[in-house]
Design goal:
InterPro entries: LbH_gamma_CA-like (IPR047324), Transf_Hexapept/Carb_Anhydrase (IPR050484), Trimer_LpxA-like_sf (IPR011004)
Distance between the termini: 22 Å
Shape: globular
Number of strands: 20
Largest sheet: 12 strands, parallel
Protein name: Gamma carbonic anhydrase family protein
CATH superfamily: Hexapeptide repeat proteins
Radius of gyration: 15 Å
CATH topology: UDP N-Acetylglucosamine Acyltransferase, domain 1
Organism: Thalassotalea eurytherma
Order of helices and strands: EEEEEEEEEEEEEEEEEEEEH
CATH class: Mainly Beta
């Protein structure tokens, strides 16, 4: 196993088909990465005290940190990090113990905290802070610190969510020489 993709306590990451993981990214422990995923430079994923699941055709851009919350008496399941399909996670984001559905764009520098749930088809603006245990409803733009529901997505924004995933699948294919 490559030095940037490592086991933790005997649990190794599971990597899907046609997935690109940059050599400067670090992927440790109980992590499952789907097919056609792009993990870009300086991403840190640590599945050490809980698990991380990343769906198909998702991209995790430069400098993003993905982590989880440990299991304890007050919260027996802790907070794993679950990310759906066709998700674009912008540069320098922090996702910690949250759940993201499908066709989501997380703007650059956004932070999504423990227990937050983002339904399908959501756009999260750059720099947005999603506090713990918030629910972001499908079909809306969220912005701010702390986040607020700004407005329904326009049809072209809705279409862009999948187009963004397509663009990054094509880019990771270029990097893989496919």
């Amino acid at each position: 196993m490559e030095s940037n993709i490592r086991s933790y306590k005997g649990i190794a990451p599971k990597i899907g088909n046609s997935t690109y993981i940059d050599s400067s990214a670090v992927v440790i422990g109980d992590i499952t990465i789907g097919d056609d995923v792009g993990v870009w430079p300086l991403v840190a994923m640590r599945g050490d005290v809980n698990h991380i699941v990343i769906g198909n055709r998702t991209n995790v851009q430069d400098g993003t940190v993905l982590h989880v919350t440990h299991k304890n008496k007050a919260n027996p399941d802790g907070y794993p990090l679950i990310i759906g399909n066709d998700v674009t996670i912008g540069h320098k984001c922090m996702l910690h113990g949250c759940t993201l559905g499908d066709r989501i764009l997380v703007g650059m520098g956004a932070i999504i905290m423990d227990g937050a749930i983002v339904q399908d088809d959501v756009l999260i603006g750059a720099g947005t802070l999603v506090p713990p245990n918030k629910l972001l409803e499908s079909g809306f733009l969220y912005v701010g610190n702390p986040m607020k529901k700004a407005r329904p997505l326009k049809p072209e924004e809705q279409a862009f969510l999948l187009k963004s995933a397509d663009n990054y699948v094509n880019m990771k294919n270029d990097y893989l020489g496919l």
